[in-house]
Amino acid sequence: MTCTETKRLLSLYLDGAVHGRLMGQIGDHLAACDSCSQEYALLCQVQRSVALLRRRKAPPELTLRLQVALSQEAARARRPVWGGLSVRLRNSAQSFMWPATAGVLSAVIFFGLLIAQRCSHRPLHAARA
Hints:
Layout: H1 3-15, H2 20-32, H3 34-52, H4 62-78, H5 83-120
Helix pairs in contact: 1-2, 1-3, 2-3
């Protein structure tokens, strides 16, 4: 077995995921090769160091934040491509329609009053002599 093949399988060997003849070949190579055995020793040391680390507790709001993120992503995935655009257009139209309607209504009332005032005056007739 070559060093390249052994180094590629060292992590699996360390985890006990290699069985049978392959396990024996890796063990034989590690016994004969100083470079690979040093790398294996470093991997063992890393594994022991990680095992000594304490587990940190997840923050209490993590579950809620994950649920919100997942529901937002699910909603985004279900929404059709043009769905977001139609909602934005509808919202824009609604915010524009109130002032536009008020402006048109004011103009109609103003011109209606103006025309009513102009029509209500009787023409002046010259006095007869």
